[in-house]
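Hi R.,

Quick one: here's the TIGR00266 family protein sequence you asked about.
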Amino acid sequence: MDHDITHRPSYAQLTLSLDAGESVRAEAGAMVSYTGDVDVETQAEGGLLKSLSRSVFGGESFFMNTFTANGASQLELAPALSGDVQHHQLTDETLFVQSTSFVASDPTIDVDTKFGGGKTFFGGEGLFLLKLSGTGPTFISSYGAIDEHRVEPGETRIVDTGHIVAFEETLDFEVKRVGGLKSTLFSGEGLVCEFSGEGTVWTQTRSPDAFLAWLIPKLPTQNSSN
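And here's the predicted structure, written out as tokens:
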């Protein structure tokens, strides 16, 4: 399976070249177009309970699409948000991905949900992650551009939960408040994730939560008298 990522980093699109018999599993709604003889199968991947967990807690669709080429074909995929797409080749390992950042993977990759902790009563914000495990290609997306940060032993890196894209299983992480309760409620920072150990964390230059916090107060509201 060859891949090409174009229009990055602002409006990235993933093009996959599939040979006969090759398949790829993608988030529902990610398909832009395809050429060639391709079968599309929509199913609750991993069974009812796992699909429900991904949908309710992971922010992903209940269903996933599997595209299987019957001959040489091309498939174009794109994420919902404007930003970049990045390829990760897993080799018997696990990658944790922020909800909504999963685009596609080899069908043999197991996609599960993990709660990272830190949900608050006031903000309703927590860290719900997708756990990608196995061997094969995976593709993740960001809102904005993607930065890569290497954490070495003895170091820590603090990342706002809204800016996390993915991180390696080798890292330890803890979700915590910024300062005290007052800072959490009024600083605009919310929750952060403290990474330690050894591994790589990928961040995005924009936060969907921050954008919604800016946008929603500006939306027109219906007059209660009408």
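The chain has one domain: 2-215.

Cheers,
M.
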